[in-house]
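Quick check before the chapter quiz. The format below is the same one you will see on the exam, so make sure you can read both the input and the output lines.
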Amino acid sequence: MFQTPAGAAEEDSCPMERVILYSLLEPRGSGKTMYGMLQRIALSQICLLYSQLLLSSSCMLTFFCFLQLLNCILRELLEVKDINKNVLPVHLNGLLQTDDRIALKEITRQLNLENVVGDKVFGSFAENLAFLLEALKKGDRSSSRPVLFILDEFDLFAHHKNQTLLYNLLDVSQSAQAPIAVIGLTCRLDVLELLEKRVKSRFSHRQIHLLSSLSFIQYLDNVRSQLSLPQDFPDTKFHDEWNDGIKTLCEDQLVVDVLQRHYSSSKDFRSLHLLLMLALSRVSASKPAIKPTDLLEASRVCMVDSKANILHGLSILELCLIIAMKHLNDIYEGEPFNFQMVHNEFKKFLQRKSHSIHNFDKPVVIKAFEHLQQLELIKSMDSSTAKIQKEYQLVKLMLDHSQIMEALQKYPQCPTDVKQWAMSAFG
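Here is the expected output.
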C-alpha cells in the first residue's frame, strides 16, 4: 500500500499504514460508525426472533442491508452459551444455490446429515426437507434444535422454479412443524412483488429497512476521522503534521466536490473506504501526504459515471441540445424549460457558427429531443401532458455541469466550436 524508497527505514511508515488501514477496514458495528446503532437495533430484533424460534417460529425477517452486518450480530449471539449450543445456522446464497436441488444439498451438508440421508429417495422437496428437520429432533419437540436459515440475495431465490424452497421453508415456519426461522437479505425494496401468492401468504411481513440517514457533514467528519492518526501514535511530530494536513485536505473545495459527488451517488462506507484507500496508495516516504488531486484521481478510478458514458454515444445534434439545456440551466438557475426554449438557444448558436454545424430542420431536432427523453437524460416535469403541445411541455436536465464537461473532453472528434460554446458563460 505504501511505497518505500530503497534505503529508507521500513518501520517508519509501517505504523501509519497499519493504523489507517485498520481504521478503514475495521468491522461494521464496532461502535465508531452508524452501523453500531443499526447493529443494536437488529440484535434486539434477532433476540426476539430467537425467543420465538424456541416456541412456534412463525416469523421471517427481511433485511435490506449487508451480510457483514448480520454476521457481526450472529457472532455476538453465538457467544451466548445457550444459543451456541442450540441454534443451527444455515447460510444460503442465491448466487451459489441457483436451484432448489443444489440448495437442498447445501442444507444437508451444513446440518451434517449426509450420513442420515444416505441413498434415500424422496418423492418431493417438502418430503426431503421434512425428513431433514425430523432428523434434528431428540425425543420430544422441546428438545428439537432450532434452525436459523439465512438467505442472502433473497430476491434470486424468488426466481427458482415454482419458488419451492421459499414456499416449504415459510410453510414449515408458519405452521410450527419444526422450530425454524428464515432471514432474507436483499437490496431490492420490491422483493415482495416477486413472491407468488401462496408464498407471500406464508410470509410474516416483518421487515427491517436499514436505510442510511447520514448527512453530508457527518459523511465529511467520517472521512476526517478515518484518515486521522490516533493520539497514541508514536511519532508526535508526524502525527501533528499528518492530522493538520488531513484537516486542510477536508476543507479544500476540490475535495469537498469529489466527496459530495460520492455522497450523492452512495452513502455506503464501502465505496468511501475504497476511494480513501486508492488515495492512500499514492502516499510514500517521498510524498508523505494526501493531495486533493490524489482524491480526484482515485474518484475517477472507482466511480464510473453511466450518464457521462451515454453522452459519448450521442450524435452531434443531441450533444448540442444538451449544451443548449446546460446554458438554460445557468440562465434560469435550474428552473424547468421546454423544447421551444432549447431550440431557440440552439438556433442562436447556429447563426453564429453556421459554417461548422449543419442546419437541421425542426422535425429532426424534435426527434433528437425525444431520444434524449427516452434515454432519461431529460425528465418531464408536467404531471398531465395530454393538453400541452410537445414543444411546450416543461422538462428538466438530469445532468450536472461537471458530467457534461467531462463527457465533452472524451467525445470522439467533437468540433472545436461546440466545445467553446459549452465552455462559454452563456450561450
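If your answer matched, good. The CA atoms of residues 315 and 368 lie 9 Å apart.
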